[in-house]
Recover the amino acids of this structure.
């Protein structure tokens, strides 16, 4: 199986780029630098306000698919997607059209990352309905069915509780006959991982090594129940990467990150990979040993192109042969 991604860079913040008068150009430079350094995918958040823990609510935030369309014109090989699309923000038929357009613009590099959405304050501020969690998951399941059908069928119809399509024409077609891969974000053991087993090409998890092992065991059980080989699901984990040329450099960056985001030790242990290149490689190896196929990282200093290059070269230099084998 070819993984949906081996190493991805997520760009969750645009505040550092905002001050130089070239906001998009700086973001595009981060994306193209990541691609040149070996990252095989680039991701942005699907948020319209900046989220707690990353920055302040009034910081700049692009609409995800508009930005991804711009990045499609600047990049050449990296897959592009939202990590992850909130199901509540768009009618799923429109979402299927948007992801298909991204696929065509990028020459077949789109990924539909999607989840049940969570940021209530954003919904309230912008006037989106924020249904109870169970309903959001029901909507997610219907959206998955509609998007897959519109990616792969000529004029599909579907009648659900929340969404419906009738002879939905999707032209131009996605570049590949099976359409853009679908990734579901989240680690909920009852609904999320079940939906992965039933509908997705990939999943994205969170947590430390022990948590990842447990979640993958749960996913394997769901796959067994629906008659699917879990090896056909690309299993990824999103975390933060802090890398420096030396241990001292990494420690300095890590201390700044702690102050900026108010992170406690438990959060750091479960979400952050930090150190010089040798230490980063050791930590990444343990995550792969837990059963993952790919890793997606955000970097607090992603506006520092030298840091992005160091990260990509470190990861692909250490694990490139393994990626080729898979």
């Amino acid at each position: 199986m070819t993984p949906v991604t081996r190493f991805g860079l997520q760009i969750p913040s645009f505040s550092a780029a905002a001050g130089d008068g070239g906001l998009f150009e700086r973001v595009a430079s981060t994306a193209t630098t990541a691609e040149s350094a070996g990252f095989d995918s680039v991701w942005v958040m699907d948020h319209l306000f900046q989220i707690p823990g990353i920055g302040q609510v009034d910081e700049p935030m692009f609409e995800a698919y508009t930005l991804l369309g711009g990045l499609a014109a600047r990049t050449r090989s990296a897959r592009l997607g939202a990590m992850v699309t909130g199901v509540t923000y768009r009618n799923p038929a429109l979402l299927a059209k948007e992801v298909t357009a991204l696929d065509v613009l990028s020459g077949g590099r789109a990924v539909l990352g999607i989840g049940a959405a969570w940021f209530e304050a954003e919904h309230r501020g912008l006037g989106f309905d924020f249904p109870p969690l169970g309903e959001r998951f029901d909507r997610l399941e219907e959206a998955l069915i509609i998007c897959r059908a519109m990616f792969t069928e000529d004029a599909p119809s579907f009648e659900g509780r929340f969404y419906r399509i009738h002879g939905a024409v999707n032209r131009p077609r996605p570049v590949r006959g099976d359409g853009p891969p679908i990734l579901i974000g989240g680690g909920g053991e009852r609904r999320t991982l079940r939906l992965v087993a039933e509908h997705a090409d990939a999943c994205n998890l969170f947590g430390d090594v022990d948590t990842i092992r447990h979640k993958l065991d749960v996913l394997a059980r769901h796959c067994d129940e629906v008659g699917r080989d879990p090896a056909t699901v690309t299993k990824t984990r999103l975390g933060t990467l802090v890398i420096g040329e030396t241990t001292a450099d990494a420690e300095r960056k890590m201390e700044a990150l702690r102050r900026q985001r108010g992170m406690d030790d438990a959060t750091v242990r479960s979400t952050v990979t930090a150190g010089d290149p040798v230490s980063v490689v050791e930590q990444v190896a343990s995550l792969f040993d837990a059963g993952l196929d790919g890793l997606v990282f955000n970097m607090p200093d992603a506006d520092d192109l030298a840091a992005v290059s160091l990260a990509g070269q470190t990861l692909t230099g250490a694990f490139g042969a393994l990626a080729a084998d898979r």
